[in-house]
Amino acid sequence: MDKLVVAGGISLRGRVAISGAKNASLAILCAAVMAGELVTLENVPDIRDVQVMVDILRSLGAQIHRTTPSGSLRILMTEPPAQMPPYHLAKQLRASNLLLGPLVARFGRAEIPLPGGCNIGTRPMDLHFKGLTALGAQLSLERGTVVARAAGLEGNRVYLDFPSVGATENIMMAACLAQGQTVIENAAREPEVVDLANFLNCLGARVRGAGTDVIKIEGVDSLGGCLRYAVIPDRIEAGTFMVAAAATRGEVILENVIPRHLEPLIAKLREAGVEIEEEEDRIRVRASGPLSPIDIKTMPYPGFPTDMQSQMMALLSTIPGTSVIVENIFENRFKVVDELKRMGARIKVEGRLAVVEGVERLQGACVRATDLRAGAALVVAGLMAEGETRIGNVVYIDRGYFNLEQKLKMLGARIWRTSSEADAPAQNGTARKSAMV
Ligand SMILES: CC(=O)N[C@H]1[C@@H](OP(=O)(O)OP(=O)(O)OC[C@H]2O[C@@H](n3ccc(=O)[nH]c3=O)[C@H](O)[C@@H]2O)O[C@H](CO)[C@@H](O)[C@@H]1O
Ligand SMILES: C=C(OP(=O)(O)O)C(=O)O
Predict the structure, then answer these.
(1) The whole model's pTM is what?
(2) Ligand 1 center to residue 417 CA distance, Å?
(3) Is 71 in the pocket of ligand 1 (CB under 6 A)?
(4) ipTM for this prediction
């Protein structure tokens, strides 16, 4: 099993280009199965989750062609699914549940094995069920598979008890092909929901209000194709680099970002004393002076994103004083604490609350990613730690970061991947056996 090795203590400096958003890409790929004609997507990152989603769509019978890793992805699905997503693929990622709405709306039938992904909480699907049922689909759980059937969907008013991103997306997609108007109240406002709505409108759907808590969809008979749709930049990847720059007291310019999507993080980093300059599609991050402890509460957008909580915890673990983190979205997102403690962090967890007492320095250690963002947090911790940090379960990190090591190396980090306990970096930064050094 591969490990990431980080030799800490180097300030990150330089420029980094941010890739397309994982969560927007996954939802848009699911929506593409509703398109009657060719869809061309750009800025879709070639990360593990996208590769698995592409395999799932191919298993349904979609024709998919990728030009280059950062280039365009062409998708065409003209026939009803040849088969439903196989368990071994669906279980690998959470977003496979976003095929329910599109498949039942276009083909009248969907069978999706209960999705997998990171173990960050219970992650029920009751709100997806509530919304799709309100549109007239019949849903049941049959031997671990969600089965949805509909002879034709009808628009309705759906109130979400919580602004779930996935439920909003599933209902919004299904409603595009329902008869009449659907109104989603207390909808999620995340930028990825807006990106999905823009893509659906590009196919000929009629979605209004995405980005607010009331989304209105006028159903149409069918959706067409889209000559070119570019996915938004990944705000969580961008945020991870911002935190890494601050943690190593470096200076980094992020390119291809939408600063507005990062406001909750920018506000908290500024509060901690990090200097941030925003331009139209660039952000400069600099941490030169001492930083102060801060408190964080994760919330639905525009609140502080749960997907940035672990990386911030790593940063706060070396800021003198006491910081408090409240995790309101996913109850198991503090699993990273035990790993950070191996590196010398002083963190106490009480339910959904973590109290972080900043230590002077972390020490490199052997640790293990417990989920995607925990993995990113351990990379941040490794970058600022004394000595070498070896991170296991890299497969989680690969789910959501495109070229992470290469991007960090370009910023001066010493980071490499190894499948052997004995590997060490060569002087030029590429890995080679320590016996040969
Ligand atoms: C692929 C994708 O886009 N993943 C993102 C999406 O996940 P996902 O769409 O799964 O997250 P949700 O917004 O649905 O979940 C948020 C909260 O709502 C609860 N809930 C959700 C659905 C439901 O039917 N019932 C219910 O109670 C969940 O348990 C959780 O406590 O949004 C999360 C919150 O921003 C992010 O962390 C994930 O990175
Ligand atoms: C939790 C995440 O993703 P998913 O919903 O796909 O598990 C994430 O991106 O941090």
Answers:
(1) 0.95
(2) 31
(3) no
(4) 0.99
